[in-house]
Design a protein that fits this description.
The two termini are 31 Å apart. The longest helix is centred in the first third of the chain and has 17 residues. The protein is an alpha+beta fold and 215 residues long. Helix 2 crosses helix 3 and helix 5 crosses helix 6. The relative contact order is 0.18. Keywords: Acyltransferase, Transferase. It comes from Pseudarthrobacter polychromogenes.
């Protein structure tokens, strides 16, 4: 029988840091992602996401997450792609780190977003997983810019950005669900990147880059 990895080469991609493994979420792992999200990601009423998906009723959270994972796969092309990487720590699913791009061949720019279970926050894991995708983007994909954003009150996310060398890149006002938030944009380049003192281990890159037509 042909394996899912044979028809969707991105499933073979793995990024390994000293404490974490990042890899694309497969269907059989979606329940673990939903279970992790249900444990709590942020304080009630302080939603850091532009789409308030964490505020959905429990019975709607799973189907909504599954639809998002399937949508990202279905819309993945060399011109527009998002890699949804699950985060495993000591064998447990603890969150998600995404990295994506539009017109990457021309712009050489990626954007990132992430979430972590609340009960593992504050240990430097958010910084470690963001550093992993920055290293992968710059050193393996040939990106020239990595962008991110956060509500201006989200000190945890902005603190990770500062610690890795991101520079402030303007603010905007956006509708986040039913609220209006002031959003801080940040920008990282290979020159400003404060690289970690560890080496990223990558598997499955050749097939993934060929699939995305990244040379």
């Amino acid at each position: 029988m042909t394996s899912p990895n044979a028809v969707w080469p991105l499933f073979d991609l793995t990024l390994a840091t000293p404490r974490l493994e990042l890899r694309p979420i497969q269907d059989h792992e979606i329940p673990a992602a939903v279970a992790a999200a249900r444990t709590g990601i942020h304080e009630p009423g302080r939603n850091p996401f532009s789409t308030p998906w964490t505020e959905l009723p429990a019975e709607e959270l799973g189907p909504n997450m599954a639809r998002w994972y399937w949508r990202c796969r279905a819309e993945c092309t060399p011109d527009s792609w998002t890699l949804l990487l699950g985060i495993w720590h000591k064998g447990e699913f603890i969150g998600c780190q995404d990295v994506g791009a539009k017109e990457f061949a021309t712009l050489k720019t990626v954007s990132t977003g992430s979430w972590l279970r609340q009960n593992v926050q504050g240990r430097g894991l958010g910084k470690e997983m963001r550093a992993a995708v920055a290293l992968y983007a710059f050193d393996w994909l040939g990106a020239e810019v990595a962008e991110s954003e956060a509500a201006d009150w989200n000190e945890a996310s902005l603190g990770v950005s500062r610690s890795l060398g991101y520079e402030l890149n303007g603010i905007t006002r956006k509708a986040w669900g039913t609220r209006v938030e002031t959003v801080q944009h940040v920008r990282l380049t290979p020159d400003s990147f404060k690289r970690p003192d560890w080496t990223l281990r990558v598997g499955g890159h050749e097939a993934a880059s060929k699939f995305l037509k990244i040379t």
